[in-house]
Specification:
Elements (H helix, E strand, L loop, with lengths): L1 H18 L3 H9 L6 H8 L4 E4 L5 E22 L7 E21 L5 E8 L6
Antiparallel strand pairs: 1-2, 2-3, 3-4
Keywords: Signal
Protein name: Lipoprotein
Amino acid sequence: MKYFLKLSLFSMALLFMQGCATHQKFVNKYNAWVGQDINDLIKKIGYPDSTYILPNKNKVYVYERSRIYTYPSMSIGYGHWPYYHGGYGMYSYGSDVVQRTCKLYLETNKHGIIVKWGSRGNACVSN
């Protein structure tokens, strides 16, 4: 019972911390970078994971983030099973695995100015 209570409190704390980060804040953050120099962004968030040149000679900077989380889980089922000698209930413990990813693309012109950006993934959020 103590384990379940601790697990519940931990899960609630994680939910509250995740509640502050939203996709809309992420969009607003990178919309504000359009028209800015890519070097200023690199100074702020670090070097990109990769870059490539487009056919129009613009350069794309790619930032990738991927995390795998495991959450303990418990399943409870109710029902009568004759082999339990009249007992009810069934408990199962395990874990759920979730992969959270975000890939950020920043396109710059020949002067290093960010002209547009895009993202893919299920974890593109910002505080």
